[in-house]
Amino acid sequence: xxxxxxxxxxxxxxxxxxxxxxxxxxxxxxxxxxxxxxxxxxxxxxxxxxxxxxxxxxxxxxxxxxxxxxxxxxxxxxxxxxxxxxxxxxxxxxxxxxxxxxxxxxxxxxxxxxxxxxxxxxxxxxxxxxxxxxxxxxxxxxxxxxxxxxxxxx
Length: 154
Hints:
Elements: H1 2-80, H2 82-97, H3 104-122, H4 144-153
Helix pairs in contact: 2-3
């Protein structure tokens, strides 16, 4: 009897352990399913972010190509400098006549002034001579003028 009671107690204890183990496995299964769901959601979110990044890169490449072609097309216009002769007189005429009564003499003067500005803008910057490049009395910079004059005085 005593052995039978021990066996019953052991069987009941073993049953309780199995129930606890089964509950632990259920919790583990739920946690694993939640982790898999979260991992799938994060993978989808990362895929959406990657797609957005690729779309942004494609847009930037198109923008760069467009800017490059626009720049090349404007180089020809800027090289001819003809736009100066259209924009400058028109701009001086509009700004100089704004709010005033019409006057043919003023309009002709404003257009002429705009043309003069256009001529100065059309001159290549390489043709301008900087004051530091001017040589006085064979010396490379203007500070030597005073030195040269002091030598002449002695």
